[in-house]
Each structure stands twice: as C-alpha cells, then as structure tokens.
Amino acid sequence: MGWQTGPSAFPWTTLLINVFGCAVIGVFLVAVTEGRPAHPLLRPFFGTGVLGGFTTFSTYSVDIRRLLEAGRPGPGLAYLGLTLVGALGAVWAAAALTRRVIHRGGAR
Q: By the 8 A CB rule, do 102 and 31 touch?
C-alpha cells in the first residue's frame, strides 16, 4: 500500500490527514453554529462520528511511540509538535475563513 509508513519513517500521511480533518472540523463547526440552523444531532454525528473516524489521532500516538522505540526521539517530538500546531492552526484558519465567507454572504 502506498500510504504505509516504515518503522522509522516520519508519518507524513497521518500528519496530513489529521491536519486536513481538523480544517474540515473548523469549517463544519462554524457552518452549523453561525450559518444555517442544523438538526441538533448533526454536530455529534458528523463532528465526532464521521470526522472522528476520518482523523487518525489514535494512529498519531502509536506513530510517536514507534518513532521513540526506533531510537528517533527528534522526529517523534517534531511529529508531536507539528501535529499539535498544524491541527490547531488548521481549525483556527478554516473557522476564520468560513466565518468570513458566511458573514460576507449575509451582508449582501
């Protein structure tokens, strides 16, 4: 499979999927809280269920452990930090952009 990560390789695929999933969460949460009214169960279904299944934060912890066990603490700590900063930054940027689009569309 082309997406597999070797035992001591940096897990770029997991990092990118988690950051992308967090961006989608940012868009979704602004859309359902500040955009059109949504069914009360949509938020936990899509936010927790669908996007929780799409992102791979359980794999994230396994990948950090794998890198540490392979004697690569530097890449393990870099991965830990990049994922945290990337995920939070993606939520913030996507939410801000979505908020801007929603409010610009409502001002017309």
A: yes
Q: How many helices (H) and strands (E) does the chain have?
A: 5, 0
Distances from the Cα of 19 to the Cα of 5, 49, 51, 57, 92, angstroms? 17, 17, 11, 10, 11
Could you tell me if 76 and 30 are in contact, meaning their C-beta atoms sit under 8 angstroms apart? Answer: no
* Share above pLDDT 90 across residues of the chain, in percent, rounded to a whole number: 58
Among residues 14, 5, 6, 3, the alpha carbon closest in space to that of 79 is found at 14
Contact 76, 67 (CB under 8 A): yes
> What's the pLDDT tens digit per position in 70-93?
999 999 999 999 999 999 999 999
Q: If you search the block for the tokens 């017309």, which residue do you land on?
A: 108
